[in-house]
């Protein structure tokens, strides 16, 4: 017995034990082989000839066992394909040899390789074992895109969408299966999951979040040519490094979990005039209309739709003479409500809704593809306007009333203008190929609109942000909000020169209850575009 | 009758059971390797191996060795695979429980050590008492089995105490375990007796014959009702599936399993809406991640262990199955899968399939319909029990809280399984030699197994013939054989 104990603590025991393990399985297999070899001698021939049917019963039972084994294999052998399971093991399994503990979850990087989220191994508080912690260097700035991984609250955002791949991925190609088989047979623990590279720009994202800080709002920046998402910021945010239960109470007044950029629906106000202008130009409408100071209405029962200049003059105790007869360009540059309300009515219900379909309103667009789950952006919500309701149409034409849009959709529209009318699907990860969503407007319309938007910044409502360094095109918006002060909007792109716009950046900025678009949202957009230029992201 | 005489000389008997000896030997070799592996893990954790640690292995070797020798000495002709397979599964069970600390230190109670030899002894008793066709004596007192079954459940209801959601009698004995045998005996006897009537379904719209069926229905209703009062859903499931299997095997009418499946679905639906306890289990099964640290904890810990074990496992004594709650009984399969890996657990399931296949083989070849049905019943009980346990542990189906036959820690279960095995062995021994048989060609076509879709009832009609056509040294089972003439004396030996 002492001999045995000595053997068990001796060095070669580990090897020997492995041998015993194999021998055990081999001997068990040998027993089965013998049963097969001896089947002639083991047959119960002294009994009756077998009744039929029982063979089928045994085959049925064997099949059931096989099914159970197959299901067992889906956990035991390819458990990495079950993200929730891997997460459970990483959190709750105390077995140190469990390979799940050694999966170093892949990092999430921005397009330049800057780390947005990574796993760091370190000792637990009691120092008993190693623990892998998820760290988000940019904290709240990227929280909505990246999401969080938390023991109790699970995963969200990209962490959820790319969970499988981050944990090492489920075998998809033959090569992956080969790798999985190799790991299983050689007992090699999968050391590291796959990294995920996003199109985001950490620096711009951080800047966008900082500029929004303290206010509710969202910033979206896209590359018009291929839909790469450079910024997707939403404020107020949360710190994914410290997720707390308060976040999940429905009563959170700030709605910190809400990703305003892709899920927040806001009245667009004047930025919607870009949509209407595109729809009118595509429909061959380019009228010169009289825009008097007293405004426009479809019926005396409804309040008149007036221009911003009228209210500004009245507040200053002056009178304003009105725009007079103006064309589409001037109307957009000066953001004339009266013009666009009339234009909307001229366009008519049918053409208006057709334009809505063309701009993919009332849709959800996937921001990621090829991952186990997708992240989506909502586009806009436009309730059908009854054909008898001409005032509703006039309201919708200036981005009020029944029209609600997300900041992401407005960025997409600005990008479409910059990209000769074609909208590219916004892509969060670099891994997916660029894909066309659809044509929002004709080539010619886009070019015309592009010039008009440049003039908005150089001489119109957006002239406050005009800088000599960069030719910015855009449209401001001040959307009346039934719940409080107006929302501040700016959509645009830079550089505005044709041929280069598609390779530049399109932007949408929304600041909830921020007042005038030209004073709140537009400077944020300008700062972001200038920073992008400094970083070489613009041509 | 039996044209295979019991081998007379000791030498022939010894040679005749050579395969069993050979298989047992290799099974014991495997178990010795397993124990060595297991004991080797002790010193690493500061636990020196003592001689006493070899007691379980010695107990296994001794009990199965003695069983083999005794059967050989008495010229037992029956199955030679069941014993080695049972030894393998028991060995795995011993390894698993030893590993979970059942025999460690000073807490090792005498009872723990004695349960396995006791079970084997009971199995031997059952085999020796009932072999040579004597098992048929169990058929006439069928109402005794019925009463005993009901009495067992009622007894539990009166004296039982609750523990972990189930009812147990004093000392955590589960007196419902023997139900698996008494119910099989009753149902087998009843169905064998009324096989013909039970196979007469109404023609245009298929409907079972209620007149002969109602005693069985009433019995099932009372028993299942009582079991449900105790919330023993697992046992109720095993027994009802076994009853259906017996009806199907006994009458050859597929209507029974089909109607039974429909009834079970409806009944299960109704039960789940009544039993919150069952409902919770189904919810946990569907989504264990809903409440991973509560309801889903056990099954997820088991699965985590399995995942950690991977394909080959860490080896006995190397892994940490104690993190899975109640691993030593219901979740022993998770322990095996963790320590022996997917390969090891698949191997164990192959042995289970082998066991069930052999039992079914005995059922297919038994001459008396009663014997065939009893063997079918035992095979079904084991199959259902194994599937429910393994299925539950691997999350293929909801957890039912049923033990794994031969392997789980639990005396009542082990003893019942062993007695059942003894019964099956006794049936496989065949019928007594009756020398006065003559043969006649007339009934040769009606031999069981030569018929179409075989059912035991068809067998029963030709049973008298079948009893007589054992050929002494037939080299193949399909060879020509000597049909026998119906004998009135044979009748009497039947139920």
Automatic annotation (TrEMBL), chain A:
Molecular function in Gene Ontology: penicillin binding; peptidoglycan L,D-transpeptidase activity
Stretches assigned to the Penicillin binding protein A dimerisation domain: 105-175
Transmembrane stretches, start-end: 12-32, 53-73
Pfam families from the UniProt entry: PBP_dimer_2, Transpeptidase
GO biological process, one term: cell wall organization
Keyword Transmembrane included in the entry's annotation: yes
GO cellular component: plasma membrane
Key words, A-Z: Membrane, Transmembrane, Transmembrane helix
Domain Penicillin-binding protein transpeptidase: residue ranges: 217-529
Alphabetical list of InterPro entries matching this protein: Beta-lactam/transpept, Beta-lactam/transpept-like, PBP_dimer_sf, PBPA_dimer, PCN-bd_Tpept
Protein name: Penicillin-binding protein 2
């Amino acid at each position: 017995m002492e001999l045995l104990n000595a053997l068990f603590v001796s060095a070669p025991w580990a090897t020997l034990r492995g041998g015993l393990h194999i021998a055990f399985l081999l001997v068990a297999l040998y027993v089965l082989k013998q049963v097969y070899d001896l089947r002639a001698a083991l047959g119960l021939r002294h009994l009756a000839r077998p009744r039929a049917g029982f063979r089928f019963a045994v085959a049925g039972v064997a099949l059931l066992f096989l099914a159970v084994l197959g299901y067992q294999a889906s956990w035991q052998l390819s458990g990495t394909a079950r993200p929730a399971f891997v997460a459970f093991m990483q959190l709750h399994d105390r077995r140190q040899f469990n390979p799940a503990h050694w999966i170093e979850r892949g990092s999430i990087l921005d397009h330049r390789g800057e780390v947005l989220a990574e796993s760091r191994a370190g000792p637990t508080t009691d120092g008993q074992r190693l623990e892998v912690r998820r760290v988000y260097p940019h904290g709240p700035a990227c929280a909505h895109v990246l999401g969080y991984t938390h023991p109790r609250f699970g995963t969200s955002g990209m962490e959820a969408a790319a969970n499988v791949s981050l944990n090492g991925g489920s075998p998809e190609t033959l090569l992956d299966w080969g790798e999985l088989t190799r790991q299983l047979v050689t007992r090699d623990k999968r050391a590291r999951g796959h990294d995920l590279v996003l199109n985001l720009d950490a620096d711009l994202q951080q800047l966008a979040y900082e500029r929004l800080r303290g206010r509710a709002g969202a910033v979206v920046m896209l590359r018009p040519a291929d839909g790469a998402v450079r910024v997707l910021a939403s404020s107020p945010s949360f710190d994914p490094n410290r997720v707390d239960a308060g976040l999940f109470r429905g009563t959170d007044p700030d709605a910190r979990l809400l990703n305003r950029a892709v899920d927040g629906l806001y009245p667009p106000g004047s930025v919607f005039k870009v949509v209407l202008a595109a729809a009118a130009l595509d429909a061959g409408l380019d009228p010169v209309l009289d825009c008097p100071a007293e405004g426009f209405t479809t019926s005396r029962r409804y309040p008149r739709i007036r221009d911003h200049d009228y209210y500004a003059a009245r507040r200053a105790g002056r009178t304003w003479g009105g725009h007079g007869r103006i064309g589409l360009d001037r109307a957009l540059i000066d953001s004339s409500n009266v013009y666009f309300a009339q234009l909307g009515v001229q366009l008519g219900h049918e053409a208006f809704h057709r334009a809505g379909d063309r701009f993919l309103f009332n849709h959800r667009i996937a921001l990621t593809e090829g991952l186990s789950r997708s992240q989506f952006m909502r586009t806009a919500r436009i309730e059908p306007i009854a054909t008898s309701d001409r005032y509703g149409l006039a309201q919708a034409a200036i981005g009020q009333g029944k029209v609600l849009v997300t900041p992401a959709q407005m960025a997409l529209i600005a990008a479409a203008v910059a990209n000769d009318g074609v909208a590219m699907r916004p892509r969060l990860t670099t891994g997916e190929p660029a894909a066309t969503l659809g044509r929002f407007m004709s080539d010619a319309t886009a070019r015309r609109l592009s010039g008009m938007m440049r003039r908005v910044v150089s001489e119109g409502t957006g002239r406050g942000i005009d800088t000599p360094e960069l030719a910015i095109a855009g449209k401001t918006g001040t959307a009346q909000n039934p719940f409080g002060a107006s929302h501040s909007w700016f959509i645009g792109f830079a550089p505005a020169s044709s041929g280069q716009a598609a390779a530049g950046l399109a932007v949408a900025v929304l600041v909830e209850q921020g007042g005038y678009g030209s004073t709140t949202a537009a400077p944020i957009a300008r700062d972001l575009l200038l920073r992008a230029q400094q970083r070489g992201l613009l041509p | 009758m039996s044209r295979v005489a019991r081998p007379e000389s000791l030498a022939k008997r010894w040679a005749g059971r050579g395969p069993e000896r050979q298989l047992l030997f290799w099974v014991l070799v495997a178990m010795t390797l397993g124990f060595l592996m297991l004991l080797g893990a002790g010193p690493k954790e500061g636990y020196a191996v003592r001689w006493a640690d070899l007691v379980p292995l010695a107990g296994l070797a001794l009990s199965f060795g003695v069983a083999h020798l005794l059967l050989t000495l008495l010229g037992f002709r029956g199955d030679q695979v069941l014993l080695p397979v049972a030894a393998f599964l028991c060995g795995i069970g011993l390894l698993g429980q030893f590993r979970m600390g059942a025999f460690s230190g000073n807490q090792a109670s005498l009872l723990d050590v004695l349960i396995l030899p006791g079970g084997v002894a009971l199995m031997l008793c059952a085999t020796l008492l009932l072999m040579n066709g004597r098992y048929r004596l169990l058929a006439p007192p069928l109402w005794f089995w019925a009463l005993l079954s009901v009495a067992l459940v009622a007894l539990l209801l009166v004296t039982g105490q609750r523990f972990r959601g189930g009812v147990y009698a004093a000392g955590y004995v589960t007196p419902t375990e023997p139900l698996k045998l008494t119910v099989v005996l009753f149902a087998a006897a009843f169905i064998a007796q009324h096989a013909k009537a039970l196979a007469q379904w109404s023609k245009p719209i298929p409907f079972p014959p209620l007149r002969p069926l109602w005693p069985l229905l009433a019995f099932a209703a009372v028993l299942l009702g009582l079991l449900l009062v105790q919330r023993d859903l697992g046992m109720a499931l095993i027994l009802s599936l076994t009853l259906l299997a017996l009806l199907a095997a006994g009458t050859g009418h597929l209507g029974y399993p089909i109607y039974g499946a429909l009834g079970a679905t409806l009944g299960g639906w109704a039960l789940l809406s009544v039993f919150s306890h069952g409902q919770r289990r189904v919810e946990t099964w569907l989504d264990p991640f809903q409440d991973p640290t509560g309801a889903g904890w056990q099954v997820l810990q088991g699965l985590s262990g399995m995942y950690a074990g991977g394909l080959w496992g860490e080896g006995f004594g190397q892994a940490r199955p104690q993190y899975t709650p109640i691993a030593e009984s219901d979740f022993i399969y998770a322990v095996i899968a963790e320590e022996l890996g997917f390969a090891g657990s698949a191997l164990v399931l192959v042995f289970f399939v082998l066991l069930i296949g052999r039992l079914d083989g005995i059922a297919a070849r038994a001459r008396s319909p009663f014997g065939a049905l009893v063997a079918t019943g035992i095979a079904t009980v084991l199959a259902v029990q194994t599937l429910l346990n393994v299925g539950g542990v691997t999350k293929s189906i909801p957890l039912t809280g049923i033990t794994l036959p031969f392997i789980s820690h639990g005396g009542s279960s082990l003893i019942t399984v062993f007695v059942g095995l003894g019964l099956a062995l006794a049936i496989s021994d065949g019928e007594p030699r009756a020398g006065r048989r003559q043969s006649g060609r007339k009934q040769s076509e009606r031999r069981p197994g030569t018929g179409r879709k075989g059912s035991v009832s068809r067998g029963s009609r030709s049973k008298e013939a079948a009893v007589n056509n054992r050929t002494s040294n037939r080299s193949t089972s399909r060879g020509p054989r000597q049909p026998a003439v119906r004998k009135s004396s044979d009748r009497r030996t039947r139920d």
